[in-house]
Design brief:
238 residues, alpha/beta, Rossmann fold, 6-stranded mixed β-sheet, 36% helix, 26% strand, globular
């Protein structure tokens, strides 16, 4: 399994953000990680990427324990966090070259050219990141998550801030990446899940509320939005 989560828990003071969740994701799959705000999505992603330690439970990425070998985990994971932190005074190519160096990429120039092409940043590559629109900054964030050719991608709302055309382009990029990488992504847009994902995991109040393949949902003629509302106890809300 590329991602293995076993009774993973995170507690802040008296609040349980993630409550003993368990799931496994094999390689070559794109999985949508859904839930309302505050459900525990970002917290789970931060634990899997080694940014914060779990309170209890365990997890591994490609067989590497997220607590015992967090630095090794980071070498094989590409992470796009929700707030997408960037160095706004750096030029796009400069920033990606810098990130390639941090990731100890041997062929930095080739790696930078590849991710610029993949994320379609050619026209913006010589601009400062601070001059870019939010949508293009999001592309830069996605490019940095790909710079070291990771085996696993963990993307927290990767299409945030993109216009409709850019959304379709990035969807296609992510879907193509799923052919040889494992992708776990969070989003609030059901159409994105239907377009990109092989499977859906819904988390609500720190607990797994549903875990089902898109094929099963299609065979049942299930409406993903209705399923989401039911799983998160929002059936009667507008």
């Amino acid at each position: 399994m590329s991602i293995n989560v076993n009774n993973l828990t995170k507690i802040y003071g008296k609040q349980t953000a993630v409550n003993s969740i368990t799931f496994n994701i094999p390689s070559g799959k794109v999985v949508g990680f859904l839930g309302p705000n505050g459900a525990g999505k970002s917290t789970t992603m931060k634990m899997l990427t080694g940014y914060i330690p779990p309170t209890t439970g365990s997890g591994s990425i490609c067989g590497i324990d997220i607590m015992e070998n967090s630095l090794e985990v980071r070498k094989i994971v590409g992470y796009l966090p929700e707030n997408n932190p960037l160095y706004l005074d750096m030029y796009v190519t400069e920033y990606l070259t810098f990130m390639a160096g941090i990731s100890e990429v041997k062929q930095k120039k080739e790696a930078v050219e590849k991710v610029i092409e993949t994320t379609q940043l050619q026209r913006e590559r010589h601009k400062k990141i601070g001059q870019l629109s939010k949508g293009y900054r999001q592309r830069v964030g996605l490019a940095q998550s790909l710079i070291h050719d990771p085996k696993v991608l963990i993307l927290d709302e990767p299409t945030s801030g993109l216009d409709p055309i850019q959304v379709v382009e990035i969807r296609n990029v992510i879907k193509s990446l799923g052919s040889d990488k494992t992708v776990l992504l969070s989003t609030h847009i059901m159409q994105e899940v239907e377009a990109m994902c092989d499977r859906v995991i819904i988390i609500n109040k720190g607990n797994i509320a549903m875990d089902q393949s898109m094929e099963e949902l299609r065979n049942d003629n299930s409406n993903l939005e209705q399923i989401f509302r039911k799983a998160t106890n929002h059936v009667d809300t507008l």
